[in-house]
Each structure stands twice: as structure tokens, then as C-alpha cells.
Amino acid sequence: MKYKVTLIKGDGIGPEVTDATCRVLAAAGAPIEWEEAPGGAGAVATHGDPMPAATLASVKRNRLGLKGPLETPKGGGWRSANVTLRQELDLYVGYRPVKTLPGVKTPYTDVDLVVLRENTEDLYAGIEHEVTPGTVLTLKVSTRRAGERIARWAFENMRYTGRRQIHCCSKASVVPLSDGAFHDAFHAVGSEYPFIQRHDLPVDNLAFQLALDPRGYDVLLLQNLYGDILSDLVAGLVGGLGVVPGANIGDQVAVFEAVHGTAPDIAGRGIANPLAVLSSALLMLDYVGEQKIARRVERAVWDVLEAGVHVTGDLGGKANTAEFTDAIIDKL
Known about the structure:
Elements: E1 3-8, H1 14-27, E2 32-36, H2 41-47, H3 53-62, E3 64-67, H4 81-88, E4 93-99, E5 112-118, E6 128-132, E7 135-138, H5 144-161, E8 165-170, H6 178-190, E9 197-202, H7 203-212, E10 219-222, H8 224-236, E11 245-249, E12 254-258, H9 275-287, H10 291-307, H11 321-331
Parallel strand pairs: 1-2, 1-3, 3-12, 5-10, 8-9, 8-10
Antiparallel strand pairs: 4-5, 4-11, 6-7, 11-12
């Protein structure tokens, strides 16, 4: 069988890195049929919306999506394309696995943790208004339902992946009702999984501890804003946003994505690193049960990184996008 996947190439370097990813997956024999759909700044020009209804319908229909970085034009009153995608499709789990890679020089050599971010609520609900001239009120939304469902997803995922320690990180001491609801939901669900260790940690203390030594952490569960910030911090521990994958997962639909920006300064020059999109595509293969293909590609990537010859400039090499991609295909 073939998996039909909505492909949103995105803006800036998006088309370059997604094309490279498609080449590698084809060489590995991944049974994927792509259905290309518009998104981002390019979609505004062609469809009048950074996240067109047709693109959302495509992902709903296929239940799988892979996307490059998207730009939401500023000044036009557009809602973020990424936020729209997550909320309209109810992709409530932001999944960011972070792992040390061979050949990528970082302060730590054995980081292996997962950041889970509640994707639909918090300040990203977008509820704000000007109370009086010069005074704006933004509402932080937190429901027990949202806290419970991402907590259950976290514990179930850990049950099957062998991870055994989770930290719920918030500021419940400062905002006891909203963060407290998230905290209470976490412990209510967690009580059903006595074989998994659960801990509480203030999010500011977490940032401090991660900077000192991230190796004592396994799974981190955070609300939307905290998760957005801390997942980028953790990516920096293993080489940056250009080397880590990401996924937005709901009960029926999942979209896998590069978490870096559009990098307009290097767009079109053929020197972009495709690793973040490619790694996200491997998460997608794992998600649908094609682990053998995913591990084969992963080994090829690791061999190329370890050799350090045909890698892009951000990884310390001199290869362009095509040369990096060719080297991975050669290893396959």
C-alpha cells in the first residue's frame, strides 16, 4: 500500500529542503504518494490566505501531512498559518524529540529527551482586546480537558516507548488557577500509571537546570507558551533548530514539520540543511509503522554526519543541499 501525504513545501528554503527529503524517501523505498498543497506567504498570493481551506481539507482527508517552514505575512491581519493548522485540525500534541547526533559538536554528548507541548490553548488561543487606549488584555485559556488529554497521550506514549520519567513544568505558584488546572490534570491521569515517575518543576527552574545539565531529563510536559520557548532552548543543546524534528499530533490527524524558520537570507542558494524536515519525515514513518525504512534512513544520515565530509555549512562542512542529500542516498 501507499500512504497519501499532504506536502506543504512552505516558504524561503522550504521547497529546497522538502524536495531533498522527498528524494531521500524515494531512494529508501518509502511507500508515499505526495499531494502538494499551498501554505504560508506563497499561499496568500495565490489563494488569499496563508492557510487555505483546501489545504486543511487535504490534511483532514489524508490524515498525514509534512510541511516545511511557513511565513505568515505581517501587517495584513493574518492569523499565524502554523497556529491555524494546529487549532483547526485539533493537533493538540506538540512533539519534539531531541537527541545528540554524531558529528555535531555540542556541550553535551548524550542528550536524549522529549518535549511535549499542549498545542491548542494558553495565550495562543488568541483572545485579546484593548480595554482602554494603551491597555491590552490577553486571556490565557486553560481547561482540564486539554490538560487531561495531553497528559494521557504523554503517559501512553511513554508506556510504549520505554521512557519512565516525566516532569510537568509550569508556574502554578504564580497563576494557580490556569497552570494549576494543568498541574492537577497531569497528576490525576498520572496516578493511573504507577510505573512511570512523575515530577513537578517550575518552568523557570527547568530553564536553569537545562542550561546546567540536561542529561537527567527524559520527558517534559508543558503548556503552549512554555513549550514553545523551552523546546527551542532544548534544540540548542543538540545543535539547533536545523537538526531537530517536530510533529503536531491529534487523535486522527498528524502533521510533521521542520521547526526552523524560512531563512530568506539563504533561500534559493542551494545551501540549506534539509535534516530537520528529513528527520520529521522519519517521525512520520514511525507514526505509520514503517520503522524499518525509518531506521535505515536514520543510519544513513548518521553515517554521513559522523564522516563530516558531505555536510552543510551549519554542520561544519562545505557541501550544498544536493551534495548532502546525495551522500545520504549513497549510504542507502
